[in-house]
Amino acid sequence: MKSLSKKLKRDLVWEHANKRSNNILILTNYILNYRNKLFNHLSCSLDGKLTVIELQSPKDEKRISDKFESLYDRIKIPHIKIGKIAINNHKDLLKILFEEKPDIGIINDNLPNFLSNILMLVFSKIYNNKVKILYWTEDFSYSNNYLNLYKRVAHRIISKIMYISADGVLCFNSQDYDVLSKKGKHAVFVPQSSNTVAECRYLTKPARTKPAYGYLGYIKSRKNIKLLINLIERYQEYEFIIGGVGDEHYLQTLKSFHNVKWLGFVFEKDKEIFFKNIDFLILPSYYDTWGLVVNEALSTGTLVIVSDGVFAKEMVQKVDGNLIFRNNDLQHLISIFNYSLELFNNKELFEKLRHIAIDVAKEYSIEKSSESFLRIINKIKEGS
């Protein structure tokens, strides 16, 4: 009897591996608390195994904890940084791919990690497309003018390659979903999420005669801190509570105002106190692929003023579109700020919007995100 061909042997090994039901492998940059919640929920709901490979480490170690419980296989691969590009040990990555033998691989268009994600595409072709590829995108168009032109061009090339090569698309904002769902591929809208439904609950706040405002996040130019400073300078009779770390020259300016209370880095356990002490969160970013602090705020019933450069504006639109201002437009922001003062004094409407905010946060829950993942995974499996 002739020996089995290499191809037939390979196919038999793959067929045996896939008898374990779904075997899903996700490439991601790093795992923060909110992603861990999503992956845990997905793992518990999945008929099969979930493996998540971390390709780099966050700039600020305070944002990440190895102490949280992971109900899925979590693998870290060493990397080196050349400029802003993270280069992993591709021998290690290939070894994991061959050992895990995923039937669905999930890649993303995060630019620093593009080499490892492209390698996953190549790996899927080695096995004659036995690995189905899902493309995870958080900003497919990448068209914000704040972004570096070369970076925009590079991203568009990489995202196009990934879209063409993928069997389906996970869209993490409704704008991308509206575009990509009409192009013929399987596509689902995955709500960006930070909270479970149970964690979305009305937060009782102290009675205040005038509203307090807050900012929570990195203190750096992309967040348009300069615009926030202009607002603080103009409205010195109102308190602004600032949480975050970043560029020292911005921090020194913020600390110089008598109406600013700077908290430094706000840990997860302290966020409820932060939101209890403010009535409106302000996120003035030039550009944010989402802005999860919007989810966190709305989940407590805290209203949000946001620039239209922040993708999470779609959540604010569902609460009160009058709280969205034109990107980097101080006069429009001032107009919105004055509207917020009127809103605060209209207690009936203010409380109504606070409750709507919680309902919207529930629409963007961990459970909803997990459901979207499972829906497209099942579609891909049915079509294979």
Could you explain the architecture of this structure?
The structure is a single chain. The protein contains 14 helices and 15 strands. It has about 375 residues and is of the alpha/beta class. It folds into 2 domains: about 5-195 and about 365-384, Glycogen Phosphorylase B (Rossmann fold), CATH 3.40.50; about 195-365, Rossmann fold. The strands form 3 sheets. A 7-stranded parallel beta sheet has the order 3-2-1-6-7-8-9, sandwiched between helices. Strands 12-11-10-13-14-15 form a 6-stranded parallel beta sheet, sandwiched between helices. The protein has a two-stranded antiparallel ribbon with strand order 4-5. Helix 2 (about 35-45) crosses helix 14 (about 365-384) and helix 3 (about 90-100) crosses helix 4.
Q: What would you call the structural class?
A: alpha/beta
**DSSP summary, beta strand count:** 15
Supply Rg. 23 Å
Largest sheet: 7 strands, parallel
Indicate the overall shape.
Answer: globular
The residue-averaged pLDDT reads 90
Biggest sheet: strand arrangement = 3-2-1-6-7-8-9
Question: What separation lies between the terminal Cα atoms?
Answer: 32 Å
